[in-house]
Design brief:
48% of the residues lie in helices and 12% in strands. Strands 3-2-4-1-5-6 form a six-stranded parallel beta sheet, with helices on both faces.
């Protein structure tokens, strides 16, 4: 059962059947337990429960309070000027697939897209990315495993001055891997050789099912990397 499945079951089986009636103390305790099991921290779960009790303690209030917890959606930046996106994160969270989806989205918008395979660390990373974007109207620039990722990015930027979007797939890294963090810093320096505004976006990809663990990953990355946005897969 996923992190949210237990909470959804409680909401559907208990809360929706209340038809506006107040929660009993036992149901309040169960709601608190389900919020914690759905990966809210104890402090946040208690705060949400207090909001629910203060506002009326019924199904409509519960729905309102939980929906208000959802962050506002902010679309990706305007790409009317050349924009460079670095896609970063640990291994296995979906960075390469995210790059392919962004490439598809921007290509459908008529953008001139260049996909940069800068992950030269993981075996088959280049093959996976090139296969995903092969049928899209985009340009792919990659290299051999073990080659210099900075050189690949430099080649992509220098040979495609007409492009409007550069999507850079990077090697999976953790904040404790000094070599990979240094590599990311190098990629940023390469981008700034072409424009001080590059990269405009550094998107951290997180596995949406990891809950608190994903939060901890984000905190670790933010401490050493200029993150501009998150992608939950």
């Amino acid at each position: 059962m996923g992190l949210l499945d237990g909470f959804k079951a409680f909401f559907n089986q208990t809360v929706l059947k209340m038809q506006g009636k107040a929660l009993t103390p036992e149901q309040e305790e169960e709601l608190l337990s389900k919020l914690i099991m759905a990966d809210f921290s104890l402090k946040k779960a208690q705060a949400l429960l207090e909001q629910i009790k203060e506002k009326g303690n019924n199904v409509d209030v519960i729905r309102e309070v939980l929906l208000n917890e959802a962050p506002p959606f902010e679309p990706l930046r305007d790409t009317s000027v050349p924009s460079v996106f670095f896609i970063i994160g640990v291994n296995g969270v979906g960075k390469t697939t995210t790059v392919a989806k962004l490439a598809h989205m921007y290509a459908k918008q008529g953008k001139n897209v260049v996909v940069v395979g800068a992950d030269t660390f993981r075996a088959a990373a280049q093959d996976q990315l090139s296969t995903l974007v092969n049928r899209m109207p985009v340009t792919y620039v990659g290299g051999e495993r073990g080659s210099d990722s900075g050189s690949i990015l430099y080649k992509a930027l220098s040979e495609n001055p007409q492009a409007s979007v550069f999507l850079v797939d990077t090697a999976g890294r953790i904040h404790t891997s000094r070599a990979l963090i240094d590599e990311l810093s190098k990629l940023i320096r390469v981008g700034k050789k072409f424009s001080e505004e590059f990269p405009q976006e550094v998107l951290l990809v997180l596995d949406g099912t990891q809950g608190i663990q994903g939060y901890r990953q984000a905190i670790s990355f933010v401490q050493g990397t200029p993150i501009t946005g998150l992608v939950l897969t």
